[in-house]
Amino acid sequence: MKKLTWMVALLAGLVAGQASAADTLKIGFVYVGPIGDHGWTYQHDQGRLALEKALGAKVETVYVEKVAEGPDAERAITRLARQGAGLIFTTSFGFMEPTLKAAKKFPKVMFEHATGYKRSKNVATYSARFYEGRYVIGQIAARMSKSGVAGYIASFPIPEVVRGINAFMLGAQSINPDFKLKIVWVSSWFDPGKEADAAKVLIGQGADIITQHTDSTAPLQIADEKGALAFGQASDMKKFAPNTQLTAIVNNWAPYYLARTKAALEGKWGSSDTWDGMATGMVKMAAYENMPGDVAKMAAETEAKIRSGALKPFTGPIYKQDGSVAVGPGKSLDDGTLLGMNWYVKGIDDKLPQ
Amino acid sequence: MAELLAVLLTIIAASTPLLLAATGELVVERSGVLNLGVEGMMVMGAVCGFAAASATGSPAVGVLGAAGAGIVMAGLFGFLTQTLLTNQVATGLALTLFGLGASGLIGEPYTGLPGVKVRPIDIPGVSDVPFLGPLLFGHDILVYISFALVAGVAWVFARTRLGLIIRAVGVNHDSAHALGFNVVAIRYGCILFGGACAGLAGGYLSLVYTPQWIENMSAGRGWIALALVVFATWVPLRVLLGAYLFGAVWIMGLYAQGLGVNIAPQFLAALPYLVTIAALVLISRNRALAKVNTPTCIGQAFVADR
């Protein structure tokens, strides 16, 4: 009898303990890079910090950085769930399968996976329309370039990157139909040395504007050294080259993280697919600098038009490289085509590696 | 002409860290020690060089700090493998893992800070000569150090008693010991020299190549340097050739892409490895000659029997 009382007391204690833990929502973040990368992961962490600031005692956040894509990721995600995280953001494409597997093991935990396309009952996905920003910087490049040639440092030929190249080129062509683009693939997301090499080669070949779809600040610094102009990537990189950065496409995850966390706190969270752009503030532009006032004005106007929905970067007529029509006048490419984009627009001379 | 110059300068920048690290490792291996920790020593050189330079504002102190960090790492390796006689392969691998982790920790406050750049040497009058001026006299000090090191090492092994002793220790440590040479002390010296070179290579990355500290910024260059030494069959001038071939093929690949030449980028990324290995294997195909240069005691622990 004494033993039973003891057990009841223990159980009661457990229940009470859980109840007090449920008052604050523990939110886990899984990052692919270090939070000090000043690019992709840094911006996700800024979102996490904004969450803490806005919701205060209602939430508690934890993060794991530098998690390798693959089996290791599942371990990291599972550990967060075991530690009592009720909502977990996994912020790299390669975390897709590990997130789904962990979600199966913890059906009551809510999962959010960035840039993926597979969902389940407790896994939502989200990504940003970075290409909207690329259209704006394409226009700036065409206005600011003296040689009419920009250099584009690219990572891997996947739709996300190809879409960015096309959006940049369409923006540039809207100003200068004869604008030229040199594309160099470095087969890496992050290798400062290789990115620097590519920037040097492109500038040596006559490009006076450098843009990148890789994650380090190296190309911007090389541009600064060689007297070219460049754009920041994912984050405002102004302090690395204050006289060179024209603007930067900034990934702003805070509003989304806040909205989803509030939904979770109110019990209204459901699996969904989000692909937001400038309209919701998920994609932002850093200050327009190192350019004449009229160019900055034009860029701000384009940005405003995209934000209001009056301008869609992929609006026809758009021709593919082979001259065939991708979309007719007045119509815009649908999201399905954008997500699977594997062709260059007309005007790009290179052949897309397959 | 200007374009050719730009390409050549880029090739020199891409090849220098490989040459520095490989030259050091060549000396280590010639003495009969296999240190697989080049990547770890390099990345520690990068972070400590950056830290020293940004603390003092002096790029020269940064370069010394980079070499010093490499020496400390190598000293750790030497103590473990030469004094405590641990397995060299395992210890080298551990050194790399340790270096990658520790550099992240040390570098935490330095991520995202603009760095101090080692400026090129400027010789008034000479550096301004078109084409040849910038090509020959317009580099930073580390480029010249890398050439001086490889030439010096080649000379030491070919012409000096010291070179002969190091080679003897590497080929047969028991005989060298019987002749009265202090095998362990000589190996310590070579290991520390290798560490200094790897540290300088790391310093080149964080002070010249891309003047900033980023975690894991060596990005596998230490491993390439290791491979270069073996494929060059421990001959200094072949290491020089290999390092520059690797850099040249990589940069030419980027150059071809910029010109719109239609080659798969995945193939271009693999090409430097293929070309360098093929070229060095072809050059080193004379087996009898290769044998002369092979440190046959490599990787074996030495215990003095009396």
CATH superfamily membership of the largest domain in chain A, which one?
Answer: Response regulator
Largest sheet of chain B: none
The residue ranges of chain A in which pLDDT falls below 50 over 5 or more consecutive positions are: 10-21
Task: Report the C-alpha radius of gyration of chain A, rounded.
Answer: 23 Å
Separation, N- and C-terminal Cα atoms of chain B: 64 Å
> How many domain modules of chain A?
2
Largest interface: A-B, 43 and 38 residues
Question: Could you walk me through the main structural features you see in this protein, from its secondary elements to its overall organization?
Answer:
The complex is a heterodimer of chains A (354) and B (306). Chain A is an alpha/beta fold and 354 residues long. Chain A folds into two domains: 17-128, Response regulator (Rossmann fold); 130-250 and 284-339, Response regulator (Rossmann fold). Chain A has helices at residues 2-23, 40-55, 71-82, 96-105, 130-144, 159-173, 192-204, 218-226, 254-265, 293-308, 335-339, and strands at residues 25-30, 59-64, 87-90, 110-114, 123-128, 149-154, 180-185, 209-212, 229-234, 245-251, 273-276, 283-285, 318-319, 325-327. The termini of chain A are far apart. In chain A, α3 (71-82) runs parallel beside α4 (96-105), α5 (130-144) packs antiparallel against α10 (293-308) and α7 (192-204) packs parallel to α8. Chain A is built from eleven helices and 14 strands. Chain B has a single domain, classed as ABC transporter involved in vitamin B12 uptake, BtuC (Orthogonal Bundle). Chain B is globular and about 60 Å long. The mean pLDDT of chain B is 91. The chains are: A alpha/beta (354), B mainly alpha (306).
Write a brief caption for the model.
The complex is a heterodimer of chains A (354) and B (306). Chain A has helices at 2-23, 40-55, 71-82, 96-105, 130-144, 159-173, 192-204, 218-226, 254-265, 293-308, 335-339, and strands at residues 25-30, 59-64, 87-90, 110-114, 123-128, 149-154, 180-185, 209-212, 229-234, 245-251, 273-276, 283-285, 318-319, 325-327. Chain A is α/β, with parallel strands linked by helices.
